[in-house]
Amino acid sequence: MKGLTEKQRNILDFIEDFMEVNMMAPTVYEIAEHFGIKTSTVFAHVRSLQKKNFLTRSSKARSIALKHPHKKLRRPAGLRSVPLFNSPEEAGTTKGKNFSEIFYDSSILKNASDLKKLFALRIQGKMGDFGMMEGDIAILKRTPEKLKNGDIVLMKIDGVPQLRSCHELEPGIMEFISHDHDKSAVRSGSGTVPVEGLVVGLQRSM
Questions:
Q1: Are 75 and 23 in contact, with CB atoms under 8 Å apart?
Q2: pLDDT by residue (tens digit) across 123-165?
Q3: All domains in the chain, ordered by first residue
Q4: β strands within 61-178, DSSP E
Q5: Which residue, 106, 102, 107, is CA-closest to 121?
Q6: Neighbours of 70 (CB within 10 A)
Q7: Is there a contact between 78 and 106 (Cβ–Cβ < 8 Å)?
């Protein structure tokens, strides 16, 4: 690693080790915490490493990627790739398009076939409700067979993607309520419910 300072070499090694263990890039905050330095110092080192063509990074969470990794990343047992989309619109029109991926522990699924129904969605703007923050990655299951009280689902209300919580009013009648308790959404007894997916997991962005 010619042309690098000792601190820059240490940061590159940490990023590579972190990615090998966690199957995703560390955040700037995680790098700063590990080395006990300010995030502004990490940003400066990352910019220098970008200029020296050792890594790339965008404004999105966990977007650091190594240009010349020394290790072949191992996939821990049980982890399987899940397509990751940056918007609900992308998730709805995926065939034949490029998308990134994350890894999800398939051992927690009751049925192995459910893996094919999973997709991941980066939370944006006002979608960040129900304990989810902007930049978090929600794991969703397409076409859930059955919903129950407390489930969080992705729906389209008047064409706008929203997260809603499920509340059973009576057997066979489900109401979908937003974080601000707007009850104007479609009820399951009034026709086809436009459920895009059921949230089954969450990866926190730091």
A1: yes
A2: 877 666 787 888 888 888 887 777 888 899 888 777 777 888 8
A3: 6-66 (1.10.10.10), 80-203 (2.10.109.10)
A4: 65-66, 79-85, 100-105, 118-122, 137-141, 152-157, 160-170, 173-177
A5: 102
A6: 9
A7: yes
